[in-house]
Design brief:
The complex is a heterodimer of chains A (458) and B (367). By secondary structure, chain A is α/β, with parallel strands linked by helices. In chain A, 53% of the residues lie in helices and 9% in strands. The radius of gyration of chain A is 30 Å and the shape is flat. In chain B, the strands form four sheets. Chain B has an eight-stranded antiparallel beta sheet with strand order 6-2-3-4-17-16-15-10. Chain B has an eight-stranded antiparallel beta sheet with strand order 14-11-12-13-25-24-23-18. The longest helix of chain B has 14 residues.
Chain lengths: 458, 367
């Protein structure tokens, strides 16, 4: 389309000295023409000023001579539309520092706007349902979360969400908060890690100003408490939280709590609080399966317009066994390497430079390790587990071991049978099938396998 | 235009500004000139190559306002060879006359209006850092070495100024090695900007002895370094710098504490034999023997093995480009250094053993 520019340059070349042309104009380009304004790309700020100063009239004339109706021009530094930019957006750090003093100059020069955090709600707008990838590891939790959005304070109150760190709990509960706020901007929502609640409470006692505390926490429509397991051993704040919880619950206001474990596994937690928290059920997010991980990375790549091969995604999904946070950081790292080396992500993997982090290097477990860990977990000697006993819990343990060998090590049924000292590989087939079916219904089993899946890589 | 200036000061100023003036072939002739501007008893000398500009201010005893441009190198060389004392420069039309006692010369110049206009710095909206000159020199020279020469990847040919955790960092990488240094902590403003490594080189070579502090001003479209009376303004490099922090290993499998001079010696020895294999040398640790072995093999010339005794916690072998290792060693400030190795293809971390504000990462070669 902009072959016109070639002609323009050709005619300018005739009118000015060769040196001037080479220095100032040779590397310019015509970006676009809109409403009589021609946008012309130049190499840098020095060129911007001097091309305008010396050649603007000539350029406008040449453009018109070549059939473009141009009244004025705009000179832009090429590729510079985004990079250097004044931003009025406030970063998280600024908010934290806000109480002390406003930084004199908070100019930010960067590509990506910082994650914004709303001061009053604690919600980060970037965490939404749209960018939360649903998989078999979290479908029930997401389904329930959406039920909370539809009917806050209703059947799913309180909403108790648990799962290992880095699986996306915070993202999901923040998404609930953001969605609720979208539906009803007047709702008073507060997201807070339990630590903050605790600190606020202590502050209110120390400063003898309970008003600030009650102003923040009373009269809320929705309370979201993150990392509840950190409440351990803080009786006073437990009591305070219990009171707040009761008050909100009784007046049908929604409480959302996340934790890395079930309440009855939290040491010294008040039994009453413990049972109340899970009275509307406890929902878990498991570690994602291989397919889930691929889906997460695929979505991330599409969302950010990253170019990454299917095989590269599978490689990361296969090798990161820990959690989604590590999965993301491994993905980011691979892309950085690729950018740095001017190679594709897959080429980086094939060159061997990719696997540099501990989360990837943890990728080693053996059939023997699985047998040992499973036996230990179900508190029986290895010999008992491997015996031909039909006793339910022993058989179950044996089948869990089969399941893990197949899923984590990718062993064939025949090989799995051999490792477990079984003659018939159909026993393995049936066992794995039972575990797969059972897991859909049995949350306890799901969790046990989740824990074991972690521990076999230790 | 007419002005009287001290020969010593003028010679020094011209020496600095004339460095970036082009030699006049192939490019625009005016770019080999220095712009001399006299305004209200202040003389300004300016040169530019249209990527950066150098400006130097000089005091004057007697002056008449005016401006002109003349070939920078010629004037610099002429003034440098004049005797001490006062030099008088006067301009008429496009010629200047330089007089000092019995020495007199007339030079052909050209009109000041032909000289490129320079971007104006918006000081009010700039982010400004002041850095003690020694810190600045050390930081810049220790990081700049890792910048790339490959102009097809512009972002890597610069030094990346960036703030994180309320500190200002500079970093550079060519894709095979990476250097990062923390310059100041406790900053509240934020900056992410790539400054051409050439600009940094120019700034470093323009710092004179009287300068105590370097002031850096990040404007939206240009950066300016103030060194006493000298101001160097430069463009930024467009593009985004890789998110390099992810590449710095947090922990290494084997950390070696060594004396820098020892490692330098054995690396140089090994490098002698490594010429035919592109400088690649082998580092091998042995926990049982407690040694680091540095070796190289050249089929034609023979081979070399040196051993350094040190505490070693594991057995690891890694192949390296000796030049990269030497570069890194040469910029470390402490005698006691730490080398962290994790595996034959993992980045190797080289740093001072005590101060932790500088890291240098080198990617190994495939052995």
């Amino acid at each position: 389309m902009f072959d016109v520019w070639k002609n323009v340059l050709e005619s300018l070349k005739q009118q000015i000295s060769h040196e001037k042309f080479v220095t100032y104009l040779q590397k310019t380009s015509l970006e676009n023409v809109e409403d009589g304004v021609a946008k012309i790309g130049v190499q840098n700020i020095f060129m911007q000023i001097n091309v305008r100063k010396n050649f603007d009239t000539l350029i406008i004339k040449a453009l018109n001579d070549n059939g473009l109706k141009v009244k004025s021009t705009e000179y832009v530094v090429q590729n510079n539309t985004n990079r250097v930019r004044k931003s009025r957006e406030v970063s998280i750090k600024d908010i934290i520092n806000n109480t002390k003093q406003k930084p004199k100059n908070n100019r930010i020069i960067e590509n990506n706007p910082p994650i914004r955090l709303s001061l009053s709600t604690g919600l980060i707008p970037e965490y939404t349902f749209d960018n939360f990838v649903v998989g078999t590891n979290n479908d029930v939790a997401v389904f329930t979360a959406k039920a909370v959005v539809d009917d806050p304070g209703g059947k799913r109150n309180p909403f108790f969400l648990y799962g290992k760190s880095g699986v996306g709990k915070t993202h999901l509960v923040q998404a609930i908060g953001n969605e609720l706020l979208k539906k009803n901007p007047k709702l008073k929502i507060l997201y807070t890690p339990i630590n903050r609640f605790y600190a606020d409470f202590i502050d209110s006692i120390k400063s003898k100003k309970p008003e600030a505390f009650s102003k923040k926490y009373n009269h809320l429509d929705v309370l979201i408490v993150d990392d509840f397991q950190m409440i351990i051993g803080k009786e006073k704040s437990q009591e305070e939280f219990f009171n707040l919880f009761n008050e909100m619950y009784l007046s049908k206001r929604q409480v959302i709590v996340t934790s890395d474990r079930l309440p009855d596994e939290i040491k010294d937690l008040d039994v009453r609080l413990s049972s109340r928290l899970t009275q509307a059920g406890a929902f878990d997010i498991q570690l994602p399966s291989f397919e889930d991980k691929c889906a997460i990375l695929q979505a991330k790549a599409e969302f950010n317009n990253h170019e990454i091969e299917r095989e590269a995604i599978e490689y990361i999904a296969e090798n990161v066994k820990t959690n989604i946070r590590d999965l993301n950081s491994e993905y980011e790292k691979l892309l950085t390497f690729a950018e740095l080396r001017n190679m594709t992500p897959l080429e980086i993997i094939n060159s061997g430079y990719a696997n540099s982090s501990p989360s990837v290097r943890r990728n080693s477990t053996t059939p023997k390790k699985i047998i040992d860990k499973v036996a230990k977990y179900y508190e029986m000697p290895v010999s008992t587990m491997l015996s031909k006993s039909r006793v339910a819990h022993i058989k179950n343990a044996r089948q869990v071991a089969m399941y893990l060998m197949q899923n984590e090590l990718g062993l064939s049924t025949t090989k799995t049978a051999r490792e477990l000292g079984l003659k018939d590989h159909t026993t393995v087939m049936n066992g794995v099938k039972r575990i797969n079916n059972e897991m859909k219904m049995n949350f306890k089993l799901r969790e046990e396998i989740g824990t074991l899946r972690e521990s076999i890589y230790d | 235009m007419e002005v009287n200036v001290d020969q010593g000061k003028l010679a020094k100023a011209l020496a600095i500004v004339s460095k970036i003036a082009t030699n006049g072939k192939a490019t625009l002739p005016i770019l080999s000139n220095v712009l001399i501007k006299v305004l209200d008893s202040k003389v300004t000398l300016t040169t530019t190559n249209l990527d950066m500009a150098v400006v130097d201010y000089l005091p004057t005893s007697k002056s008449k306002n005016g401006e002109i441009t003349v070939p920078a190198r010629l004037l610099a060389d002429f003034v440098a060879n004049l005797p001490k004392g006062e030099v008088k420069i006067s301009a008429k039309d496009t010629k200047i006359t330089v007089t000092s006692g019995k020495y007199k010369s007339v030079m052909n110049g050209s009109d000041a209006s032909d000289f490129p206009e320079l971007p104006e710095l918006n000081e009010k909206d700039s982010v400004i850092y002041k850095i003690p000159v020694e810190d600045f020199k050390e930081s810049m020279s220790s990081v700049k070495i890792a910048a790339s020469n490959d102009t097809t990847r512009p972002a890597l040919t610069g030094v990346y100024f960036n703030t994180a955790d309320e500190s200002l960092f500079v970093a550079a990488t060519d894709g095979y090695r990476l250097a990062e240094k923390k310059i100041i902590s406790g900053v509240s403003s934020e900056v992410k900007a790539i400054v051409p490594a050439n600009t940094i080189t120019e700034v470093l070579s323009s710092i004179s002895e009287e300068v105590e502090e370097v002031e850096i001003l990040f404007d939206e479209s240009e950066v300016c370094f103030r060194l006493g009376e000298i101001e160097i303004t430069s463009k930024y490099i467009d593009g985004s710098f890789p998110d390099y922090r992810k590449l710095i290993p947090e922990k290494s499998d084997v950390d070696l504490i060594l004396q820098k001079s020892d490692v330098l010696r054995v690396t140089k020895l090994a490098a002698l034999f490594a010429r035919e294999v592109g400088g690649s040398i082998i580092l091998e640790t042995s926990a049982s023997e407690g040694v680091l072995k540095v070796s190289s093999v050249a089929n034609e010339y023979g081979e070399n093995v040196s051993e350094l005794n040190t505490e070693v916690s594991g057995d690891i072998k890694v192949v390296f480009n000796s030049r990269y290792l030497l570069d890194a060693l040469n910029v470390l400030s402490e005698e006691e250094i730490k080398i962290g190795i994790s595996g034959s293809l993992q980045p190797v971390k080289i740093e001072n053993s005590k101060q932790n504000d500088y890291v240098h990462i080198v990617m190994p070669l495939k052995g």
